[in-house]
Specification:
Blueprint lengths: L1 E6 L6 H10 L1 E3 L2 E4 L2 E7 L4 H10 L7 E10 L9 E9 L3 E3 L5 E3 L13 E2 L2 E3 L11 E6 L7 H10 L4 E3 L2 H10 L4 E10 L10 H20 L3
Parallel strand pairs: 1-4, 1-5, 5-13, 6-11, 11-12
Antiparallel strand pairs: 2-3, 3-4, 5-12, 6-10, 6-13, 7-8, 9-10
Helix pairs in contact: 2-4
Amino acid sequence: MHITILSPTIFESASILNYLEQNFALESGSYTKNELTVSLSVCGVGLVNTAIHTSSLMDRPSDLFILIGLAGAFDQKYKLGDVVSVTEERFADLGAEDQDGSLLSVHDLNLINKDKPPFKDGKLINPTAAEFSFLPTAKSLSVNKVSGSLSSIALMRKKYDGDIENMEGAAFFQVCLQHRKKFLQLRSISNYVEPRNKDNWKIEEALQSLSKVVISMLDNLSGAA
């Protein structure tokens, strides 16, 4: 089995790289152990970088593509440090702002048919997620600018029924769906979506949780004792 893991930044996958270097054999730029081969790459922050990088990997003979990273949660049904499997994504701020300040999506504007594949009612849904049911699930909103004020948070919550927010997922989903690839997106909750206050963030704890989940998954797939 060949798995390709992407992360927006190197620090989100540093511990996983260290694990691979210590436990797998490096062969032609990938890491191999028993019947498992793992490729690791940094896609860059944001939707454009992610779309470009993910598209460049679609000819790779990979059985599963996994995007990993941090995310903010809209409410406290998730604890900081929880790792979730994202089942659906939306391009949450792609569209227009109306006169009253409300959000108009590209589907509201009839610029993209909300049910034209790979969209279903304006959503990008991952059919592969059901095959890996070892984590709690989340519906995600992908944005170019993370929400950091009460007004922008209220607009996003009024418009969409999202559990978490990130900056890459929808692009990754769309590319994988259009190329009919199997994929997962795993996100660790580093903060709540609230008026921006980095003192409340738990980045290191979230990174540790994310690495633990991914390493456990690789251990199981490689048949490690």
